[in-house]
Structure formats: structure tokens, C-alpha cells
Automatic annotation (TrEMBL):
GO process annotations (BP): amino acid transport
Location of this chain's protein in the cell: Cell membrane
Organism: Geodermatophilus dictyosporus
Entry GO MF terms: transmembrane transporter activity
InterPro entries listed in its UniProt record: ABC_transp_permease, BCAA_transport_permease
Transmembrane intervals: 6-27, 34-54, 60-82, 94-115, 143-162, 190-210, 222-252, 264-283
Protein name: Branched-chain amino acid transport system permease protein
Membrane topology summary: Multi-pass membrane protein
Amino acid sequence: MREFINLTLGGVITGAVYAAFALALVLIWRSTRIVNFAQGAMAAITTFIALSLIESGQSYWVGLAVALLAGLVLGAVVERLVIRPVEGGPELNAVIVTLGLFIAIQALISVLFGVNQRAFVAPFSTIGFRVGDSSLALSPNTLFTLGAVLLVMVGLTALFRYTRVGLAMRASAFGQEVARLLGVRVGRMLTLGWALAAVVGSLAGMLIAAEVTFVTPTYMDALIVFGFVAAVLGGLDSPVGAVVGGLLLGLLLSYVRGYVGDELVGLAALAVLVVVLLVRPGGLFSTTQTRRA
């Protein structure tokens, strides 16, 4: 029973990490209809910028603020200079560009910050709470991670459902010509979508770094895969789905790792992706209108 409780708590924690990255993918998809495979590398470089500040004596919160600001600028610059030339063309072009961008940014991280492991200190204690003689796989830092993910989910849901900016972003993503006729400045909305997605990605990078405690230029690689599966599982058009998908995937992989073996975790994630694409391609929280769009 103790093992099951710890596996469940570990799955929730890991799922929250997947959900944090999935939220960034959902935001970029809802605002531009592009799956950004460079999101992990963009998050990693802003995390390394924050880590450099922290190592120089600044607080974690200063590093976090700078990482979010760097993500905002990076997202806007990437959309303007790299994505804008291929927007409106075949969808595969944008996907290939983001893959190339992923490789380029990861190489840039290695050049600027080196390839060695670097310790990342979490903002709160990572020691699990104790219940009697047992230590739970739940700590103050994981509560911070869960709270941050839920806050972002609520914020994104409110943005797209209840604000004119969110409606304009969605209109720009679904039909640029119609949106322009309605007075929407499509170019600005696409840039804003990339900028906000990069901010969420930067937050995810900081949260993930605090959980894994050591970072390298490639520390986000596995999270890219699992975060994408979580986003597809919940629905690429749903912030709530991204969180639920992340938590469900985290629980499943935790049980597989604990009861079957670590070597089957990747296969289990692949099985989830295949089943979802075959049974419910739009994800658990999709709607008929969303799938047809």
C-alpha cells in the first residue's frame, strides 16, 4: 500500500511536469495552429539564462522573472524572423522549421553555457513530507509546481474563453483572411501567441529544472516527447485537457515504472499515443467542432 501511494504521488508530480510543457504546446496550437517542436529548446535556453543569474548570486525569483521576459522576447523574435516566412504555406513547412530551430537552439546552448551537468536549486524544499515513519513523494516544491500548473491552466482557459484578445488569437489561427476582414491585426495576434507560448514554456522549463535538479542542454528532450503525448491525450485545443492528460500520463508511466520496469516506460507512452490517435484523434477533451476545424 505504501508503494502504491508513493507511485501515485510520484505520478501526479511527474504528470504536473508533463502538463506544464503540454500547456505551452496547447497555447501555440490554439493561437497559430502550429505544433512547435522547438518549444523544449526555447524553454531550455531561458532556463540556462536564469541559472546563470542564480549562480551569480541573484535569487531564484529574479532568475524566474528574467526567464519569463527572455521567453517573451524570444517567442516574438522567432515568430517574426523564422516562422512568419512560412506561415500560410503547407503546414509541414512550419513543422520542419521548428525541428530545425530545435537543433539550432540546442547547439547554441552548448556553445554559450557548455555541455556539462549543472545543478539547479529548487525554490522550496524537495524533501518529502513525513507521515509517521514514512516519507511521502510529495514536497513543498512539488506543491509549488502543481499550483503553478493549475494557475497557468486557469489563466489560459480564461484568456481564450472570456477575453477579446483570446478570441482574436483564435480567429487569426483558424481563418486569417476572415479575421482581417473583421478588423483583427492577424500579424500581431500570431506574434502574441508565440510570445505567450514561449513565456509558458519558460515557466515549464524552470519548473522541470527544479524537479530534475540537474540540467544539461538536452535535459528537455524526454519532456518534449512526454509533453506532446500528454497534449494529444487531453486535446491540443484544451488547456484543461493538457493538465488532465499530463496527470493521467504521469500516473500511467509511474505505475509502469514501479510495477513492470523502467525499460517499458517509452513503449507505454507510445501505446497511449497510438490508441488516442486511433480511437479519439482530437483527444479526451475534444469536440466535434474542434476536430473539424
